[in-house]
Amino acid sequence: MTQRLPFIIFALVMALIPMVPGIPPFWIVLLDNIGLAALVAMGLVLLTGVGGLTSFGQAAFCGFGAYTTAVLTTAYGVSPWLTLPASLLVSGIAAVLLGIVTVRLSGHYLPLGTIAWGIGLFYLFSKLEFLGRNDGISGIPPLAIGSYKMLSPGAIYYAIWIAVLIAAVLTMNLLDSRTGRAIRALRRGHIAAEAFGVQTPRAKLLVFIYAAVLAGLSGWLYAHFQRAANPTPFGPQAGIEYLFIAVVGGAGYVWGAVLGAGIVAILKEVLQSYLPYIFGGQSQLETIVFGILLVMLLQLAPSGVWPWLMARLPFKAARKTPDTSLTLPAREGAPTTSAVLLQLDKARKQFGGVTAVNDVSFDVKAREIVALIGPNGAGKSTTFNLITGVLTATSGAISVLGRKVENAPPQEVVKLGVARTFQHVKLVPDMTVLENVAIGAHLRGHSGAVASMFRLDRGDEARLLAEAARQIERVGLTDQIDQLAGSLSLGQQRIVEIARALCVDPMLLLLDEPAAGLRHMEKQRLAALLRQLRDGGMSVLLVEHDMGFVMDLADRIVVLDFGTKIAEGAPAAIKKNPEVIKAYLGAAA
Amino acid sequence: MNTTIMLFLLQDGITNGAIYALLGLALVLVFAVTRVILIPQGEFVTYGALSYAMLATGQVPGTAKLAVAMGLVAFGLDLFVARKSLHARLVARAVAVDIVFPLAVCLLTYALAGPKTPIAVNIALALLIVAAIGLFLYRIAFQPIAHTSVLVLLIASVGCHLALQGLGLVFFGAEGLRGPALSNVALTAGSLRFTGQSLAVYGLTIAFIVALWLFFGYSLTGKALRATAVNRLGARLVGIRTTLSGQIAFLLASLIGAISGILIVPITTLYYDTGFLIGLKGFIAAIIGGLVSYPLTAVAAILVGTVEAFSSFYASNFKEVIVFTLILPVLVLRSLAAPEVEEEKD
């Protein structure tokens, strides 16, 4: 926790509110409802704001939580506390089943799919006999500690807000960890994350389940707060409302969920109680005004109220610098001799009728810098994508240290010690340089989601961040370590990508146009760094258009033209090769 | 299974499906051009239908005044946005579109409304009113945030839905309304009876599908609208006025919504909040069509309508459950079939 003090103050204030003498009881009810909504919205923050998966169906998961406890306590007389794990389990299992179907959906299909099953489940709740159809289930027993029954809104208040605070802490811990970085990388597309070993489908399913369990918890509390469960609060309208709580508060910010829940609940309450005084008893007026205010709010602060507020605070939270004395174990079995690291044997890639890579063969040996050059559209980046498993080869063989990788997923290729950068920079712009680079070390950490929630991952995490800080220092970006990656110049972003790749502790580094956008001095520094890496035992395969840079640096050059290899050899020989000159300058030259 | 029942259900399903198809088309249109998932589409349906039904009884619907009010707000926004470069032509355009047009429609409605007004005039008035509302809705609610993410647009769209639905209650009351049929012609083919109303539904649906397909496939404006959808910045750089594209899309969508409302209000009683569910079913069709393909959306809508008709006969309790879970397998198939592309989301 980086911001302990504000959190403790907030917790204390929340704890003291019900003790203020003369506080109107409906305020407490309002706060109870805010807490319940905040729990669901917090799940959505993780799912939608951070992970980029929009769900309209969260209310249905509340329904699973509420109905589970309703049925167990009323029909089977199970004690309310015992139904808590059951409620969470049922919502979790429902999330696994729905998640397996839905998180595979790409783009806009996902939110639309969640609307569909959200509505479907709502109708199911209201039609099933054992759930009491439209009337629901009433007479649910209250929560009790010993003989103390939490009957009043003021009593269950503590249960609700303790749940909210715990959920907030767990969620923030999760986000600030190895798994959290993987989740935060999801929103920017999956290729970069997968190139560093993140199992993106599993990460998506994880946040989906997490959000559903939080919603289930809210549903469980709701059932014991209202002491009844009926389908209406679990329908599509509620699902939409949770989503806009998250968006209004600031999707992507844990406290935005609490703030958003507060804004929406208070706004509704105020409108409901005061509008009739102003305009007379017109019914539905509050919905109209509420809708209009919502649209206006989004026009003023499209990214939500929480970040808008934070940007106006005079002080900024300080960041801890990682202790770089911690180290991670180095890769085992790195080749020391001049073994062949990477071998392409007649690799071929066709897109429909276009042959992007036409039976290309070459190899990269240990401690060698090989450059892959050729005019635009020669198939250089496609070759990179074949090697790293982003694309599958149509035919031919690719092997790393003798192991076939031509149809292996990217996560397997990176495990063999092949790390890459991208031609079009793929960083997470709203994460710091340090966090971006630490994604590179994803496979070198071991802590899972649960360990990070309970902060059992700190040793592991400190070593990962130390490694990331060391690589940032190595590429000379220490001054920018805490800046957001999106605020750097394009050239610096490319260097960040190199640091991220170095975090893999690779044997082979694939660099796609690393010098583009760099100034002369920066290019010289980059060349020096790459030579130093080679002398330290690493091999580099790079695509680059700056011929001066390539000729000066590479030990060997492979030239592609229209997908076919036209030449291979030492820089001096390539410069004189008539085929190469023809490819670059045309036949007349 | 009894063949007659089956034929009846099929006919019922196709009539409903045709309406869903119209709505689905409108949703696809708006999404393709503006990236807005138009939840208020259902309100266009009820506004069109209930305005028409009220006009048929000789009353002036409150929607006419809403159009004028929204026009005033739009005028204010237009002037505010252009405050640094106000010139006569711009102001004149704003006055014409935002003030004169809705005011003329409103005055015309007051002048013409009466118990003896011909059906065609009532329809024209209802369509004009809803078209104006649709146009101004884009100008007021969506144009200022047109650059934001699909999620923010969606939430704004929900806000509009809430406001419009609430206004619907104010204008039309909680009681349902039914409108007069467009024609009383009826044809009999075997054991089936086709009313003029259902024939009009089929005819108009087919006409719209063909018209939209021609418009987007072959006209310059249609192509400009599609270009806006793919890349707003790129479209602006080649000289397309993206705000105009959005307004055209909303205008068309509100017209289509109002027409479908007018088509169904003689068949079933509509309430101020019926539109949401009808819109959602159009939505399912649009989703199955992948929010891009018009013919596919139409086919899917017929499918939704038919499934609905059959499940309301055999398992009426679970009708909605069946209709809404129908799309899950379709979505999974579509998503698996879609090529693996890297999406840079904002």
Mean of pLDDT of chain B:
84
Low-pLDDT residue intervals, each spanning 5 or more residues of chain A: none
Number of β-strand runs of chain B: 2
**What order do the strands of the largest sheet of chain A run in, or round the barrel if closed?**
10-11-12-7-13-14
Shape of chain A: elongated
User: How many beta strands in the DSSP annotation of chain A?
Assistant: 14
Helical stretch tally of chain A:
23
**pLDDT under 50 segments of chain B (min length 5)?**
339-346
Helix content of chain B: over 70%
- Structural class computed from helices and strand pairing of chain B: mainly alpha
| Amino- and carboxy-terminal Cα gap of chain A | 65 Å
What is the CATH T-level topology of the largest domain in chain A? ABC transporter involved in vitamin B12 uptake, BtuC
Written as H for each helix and E for each strand, in order along the chain, the element string of chain B is HHHHHHEEHHHHHHHH
Average pLDDT for all residues of chain A: 88
Would you write up a description of this structure?
The complex is a heterodimer of chains A (589) and B (346). With 589 residues, chain A is α/β, with parallel strands linked by helices. Chain A folds into three domains: 4-242 and 251-261, ABC transporter involved in vitamin B12 uptake, BtuC (Orthogonal Bundle); 339-417 and 511-589, Rossmann fold, CATH 3.40.50.300; 429-505, no CATH class. Chain A contains 23 helices and 14 strands. In chain A, helix 3 packs across helix 9 (200-226), helix 4 packs antiparallel against helix 9 (200-226) and helix 6 (153-175) packs antiparallel against helix 9. The termini of chain A are far apart. The mean pLDDT of chain A is 88. With 346 residues, chain B is mainly α. Chain B contains 14 helices and two strands. Chain B has helices at 3-34, 41-56, 63-81, 88-112, 119-142, 150-172, 196-218, 220-230, 232-237, 242-264, 274-288, 294-314, 319-325, 327-337; strands spanning 186-189, 192-195. In chain B, a hairpin with a 2-residue loop joins strand 1 (186-189) and strand 2 (192-195). The longest helix of chain B has 32 residues, at 3-34. Chain B is globular and about 70 Å long. Classes of the chains: A alpha/beta (589), B mainly alpha (346). The interface between A and B is large, with 51 and 48 residues.
